[in-house]
């Protein structure tokens, strides 16, 4: 028996201490030297894996011992001479005596061997020192056996379970989640995205289960010694990154939905949920086919499975050929899921399938360019969903919401560039944020719109073809796009995509363009500066310059459809903005609007006269002559400008007043998104009454126009009106408009009197969230318990989410306290993946926020332990609370808390900085705007 190396945290800690001591005392032995000698966060580049043979036996029989054992054989090419093999490995037990190493050559394989091993716990390195030097040009085969418990966290190779409804017995299954850096917890490997290799996976398990992996099963054989166990051999994969490897052993069933000429397509779920797979099974292959056509590249694998995993930390994960989802993002129930749920599902599926090209086929070289994965998947998904469900009109709504998310986060000094340097593996997770996803998507859309369809598509296609099965950086994309744009005449020859796009991806923030018209000469002067929410920071200090494609239209012309730039705002070589003058603008009675359809992420401020003209049109019968996205833009812009003092609230309210006429979803989405922030501040102040009255005034007309909380859904023609109605009712019940609350309560009591409420729910699906919330807010303890029982009994992921979100609507301190405790108690009945929903449900409401804040402060150690090492889940807690902190003393209290709890908040520093800045900007708002706003709003009641 050789030495057992178990990388348990304890062990790691001891090693770490040993290093510190050894180095401090000058005691470095040869092993310690090899560890401390290489302490860079990236793998050495001497070796390159070509192929992995991965064999894993999964034991799911005994709930007390859910384990896996395996062997990985890696075919490694030496690019340089080296005396060691450095791999990633974490929390795996490795029997060193069984490691073998051979040189592969034509005249027979030659034995090499491993003299000693060591680990670097900081970078998860497992270092094997070899008997003989590995020589450049040679190929070696390394075999390493390993084993571990199936993890209890939702990362690496882990356990998940569900209850069989018939027998009430717990059924176990296994699943993987490797992105960004957890393949190393499942098998020793070169766990960086640029080390692409092909994978030959073999899974062993009891024959009553099914084994799934990226590729189809080639053959199945009985296990050599374990009775009733089998080995499933999967076909060899195409070259791919380790974070995309996936497998699962489960007792699920599937629904096939292969299209003619398409790859074999199956959707998997636990048996009792298979009837919820219809929508995903139908939508998935369609959107896959759309991408094949859009990119002009066929999906390269023979099959694709999508699987609903009962415990899953992300929303979904794009593993090549085996895409995994939460139940709530894959499963759709006709009787329990809403239209919004269905659209969300479609969007998630479209996102993950877009990754099969952007991410899987072409992968970023390093995590710095994560946005190439996530920004693309986000943008391309919106095209895919639009193509298959044009009646949903989701493309415009998606553009608006991604743009709004960008504006929000990127207005902070503590935001970061799209392209974000990553120096520690622990920093990678922080990049999965609105900047990579939403800002990434927004700048891609910007390019699409300024280059036009043909150039954009042909540029993308050549980029995908050039880098297929390889890795790329953003510069590679810029090259392909520049070439295509020049060929198509879509970009002036003296312009390069790189120059333009670097200004968007390497700089933090976005500009505000100030437009000052000269009404006599028909010209306008344009200047740009960074928009910052934090007014303590002088804008002059935060210099920046963005290359801005300028599209605009006038009141005469009203041509919002043309998103090609009429001019550009340019930057000098030294990075300063070059002021721009626009000619041929109309007279003083005609407005101008910049940024047709909000094609580029910038804000616009106009001179007073132009705002006046815009306000006149908005508040007239003609308001629809302004494009619906630009109406949403004007609301968003003017409320931002008022927030930071570039406009007064009088002007802003003159804009929002027009909402009484508005019947379209997008401007309302923009309005609610902004008014929500004011609501969260003002509801803590004595002047909230005025705000409430104003809100009621604004949306009573639309509430009535849509027939309020009456179930008129079957007669609604346009799908976005369904969403609008859902949204308006939610706000109406919150502000007790008209009959909203009593009607909600009567729906709820009808449900309560159903003999079988789990089967029959008389509440219209699209109102359920509003109805539950109102019923819980104004209801009794029994109402809460009733809803909790429905949560426990529900078989539908989306329904469970809605309930978790509304159980926090209570205003009873003890009930909320009990709810929070259940959320973080492993036996409380709420899965770990969902605890943050409960916390947010409490934290987002006026009574709950106080309790949630205290709960977090008092229990930060326990909450940290509950999530560790996936503490990223806690980041939402901070952002949620930050929007509701409005006083200096609360801000200081938070600062002190963060300082005292540093050891529990590692890996959250970005979110925490951002949250503190949001709190600060709220304090600033109170100081600067509270009185002015309160005065102005009274003039508008
Ligand atoms: N690649 C991500 C999954 C992921 C997220 C892995 C964070 C590691 C850390 C996946 O493609 C994704 O983006 N999922 C989203 C849902 C999507 C529709 C926006 C998610 O998990 O929220
Ligand atoms: Zn993604």
TrEMBL record:
Substrate binds at residues 179, 315-319, 872. GO terms for molecular function: aminopeptidase activity. It is a lipid-anchor; GPI-anchor. Gene3D superfamilies: 1.25.50.20, 2.60.40.1910, Neutral Protease Domain 2, tricorn interacting facor f3 domain. It is an enzyme of class 3 (hydrolase). Binds 1 zinc ion per subunit. InterPro entries: Aminopeptidase_N-like_N (IPR045357), Aminopeptidase_N-like_N_sf (IPR042097), ERAP1-like_C_dom (IPR024571), M1_APN-typ (IPR034016), Peptidase_M1 (IPR001930), Peptidase_M1_aminopeptidases (IPR050344), Peptidase_M1_dom (IPR014782), Peptidase_M4/M1_CTD_sf (IPR027268). Residues 49-244 form the Aminopeptidase N-like N-terminal domain. Pfam families: ERAP1_C, Peptidase_M1, Peptidase_M1_N. It is found in: Cell membrane. Zn(2+) binds at residues 351, 355, 374. Residues 279-504 form the Peptidase M1 membrane alanine aminopeptidase domain. SUPFAM superfamilies: Leukotriene A4 hydrolase N-terminal domain, Metalloproteases ('zincins'), catalytic domain. Keywords: Aminopeptidase, Glycoprotein, GPI-anchor, Hydrolase, Lipoprotein, Membrane, Metal-binding, Metalloprotease, Protease, Signal, Zinc. Its EC number is 3.4.11.-. Residues 591-918 form the ERAP1-like C-terminal domain. The active site is at 352 (proton acceptor). The record marks 437 as: Transition state stabilizer. The keyword Hydrolase applies. Its cofactor is Zn(2+). Residues 1-28 form the signal peptide. Belongs to the peptidase M1 family. This is Aminopeptidase. It comes from Drosophila suzukii (Spotted-wing drosophila fruit fly).
